[in-house]
Specification:
Number of helices: 10
Strand content: 5-15%
Radius of gyration: 16 Å
CATH topology: TIM Barrel
Structural class: alpha/beta
CATH superfamily: Aldolase class I
Length: 216
């Protein structure tokens, strides 16, 4: 499965930072209730693999691993049930291990040189990170003019207010954001609020252009 295909119609990807696997089932249920059954579980906490595994057990939820920076973490994510991998930067070792496992991967890029390196690895869908810190939509527009074959998943500092402008640009495949799964909401178990914010996020999205020739 290619990187664009794995996301299907999902154009907003909740970025989850959670260390308590005991809350994973309720989080998965809240995302489903909000009509946004997708999550990037970041490998920033010791319990991330357990959280990912619990969420991945819900067949209706598309769960990937984020903040993956080593090939060993790719293996951990794959064993836990991740269906895609996201990295904050471009690691050839991470990309190649994902390709060996037929696991779609979205490496992080912020420069033209990194995009060329991604293309050399056979990729044409990348994470633009950290999006707001590196010029936001203006940078996406500039990079997409130079690389019209590339699709971007901007992540980093994106909010419910800024997401629609990103999603309206034809080079943007999806955006990643944490506003609907903010750590404070998860810590407090505010599952109804997570569901409501997820539903609002779904309403931000527009039909996705048909992407041709994409590869993982």
């Amino acid at each position: 499965m290619t990187a664009p295909d794995v996301l299907g119609t999902h154009r907003v990807v909740p970025v989850v930072v959670l260390d308590d696997a005991g809350k994973a089932d309720e989080l998965a249920a809240a995302l489903v209730a909000g009509g946004l059954p997708v999550a990037e579980v970041t490998f920033r906490t010791p319990g991330a693999a357990a959280v990912l595994g619990r969420m991945a057990a819900h067949d209706e939820v598309l769960v990937g691993a984020g903040t993956v920076i080593t090939a060993d973490q790719v293996d951990q994510a794959h064993q836990a049930g991740a269906r895609f991998v996201v990295s904050p930067g471009l690691s050839a070792a991470v990309v190649r291990r994902c390709q060996q496992l037929d696991l779609p991967v979205f490496p992080g890029v912020s420069t033209a040189s990194e995009i060329i390196a991604a293309l050399d690895l056979g990729l044409d869908t990348v994470k633009f990170f950290p999006a707001e810190a590196y010029g936001g939509l203006g940078t996406v527009k500039a990079l997409s003019a130079a690389f019209p074959q590339v699709r971007f998943v901007p992540t980093g500092g994106i909010t419910a207010q800024s997401a629609p402008a990103y999603l309206a640009h034809p080079a943007v495949r999806a955006v990643g954001g944490s506003w609907m799964v903010a750590p404070a909401l998860l810590a407090a178990g505010e599952w109804d609020q997570v569901a409501a914010l997820s539903a609002d996020a779904v309403r931000l999205t527009a039909p996705t252009p048909d992407l041709q020739g994409a590869s993982s």
